[in-house]
Amino acid sequence: MEFHSSELLRIFVGEQVRFGHNPLYEEIVREARLHGLAGATALKGVLSYGHDMLIKTSKIMEFGTNLPMVIEIVDFPEKIESFLPKVEQMVRDASGRVMVTREQVQSGIIE
Q: What InterPro entries does UniProt report for this protein, alphabetically (predicted)?
């Protein structure tokens, strides 16, 4: 398998943050596709805490649980860089709060 230098963009957002009528995480994945990024995956966290230091868990049935959604996108660094302003604008428009991380990775595809 041949690997090439890529970048992993990770976006952490609460599942209840809305962008228009849809969850922000869904709209970020849709926008990544429109932007031509190689792929995007949204994962749901089952236990977390963040800036508010409150533990959120899927074990307790409670209204208003705002578990984290993690969107992972892997592509070339320049494509990730050009996508970030769109993410920033979407977060501002949604009046949300997200954490974004970037890291260098080696990626390859097995067929």
A: N-reg_PII-like_a/b, N-reg_PII/ATP_PRibTrfase_C, UPF0166
| Mean pLDDT of the chain, nearest integer | 90
What distance in Å separates the CA atoms of residue 86 and residue 108, rounded to the nearest whole number? 26
Backbone angles phi, psi at 32, to 5 degrees: -60, -40
Helix (H/G/I), strand (E/B), else coil: 94 = helix
Return d(Cα 72, Cα 43) in angstroms, integer: 8
Label the pairing between strands 68-75 and 56-57: unpaired
The pair phi, psi for residue 65, each rounded to 5°, is -60, 135
Taken in order of first residue, the domains within the chain and their CATH numbers are 4-107 (3.30.70.120)
Interacting residues of 78 by C-beta distance below 8 A, sequence separation 6+: none
Biggest alpha carbon–alpha carbon distance for the chain: 47
Q: Which residue has the tokens 């949204």?
A: 42
Bridge partners (DSSP) listed for residue 7? 75, 104
Positions of the chain with pLDDT under 70: 58-65
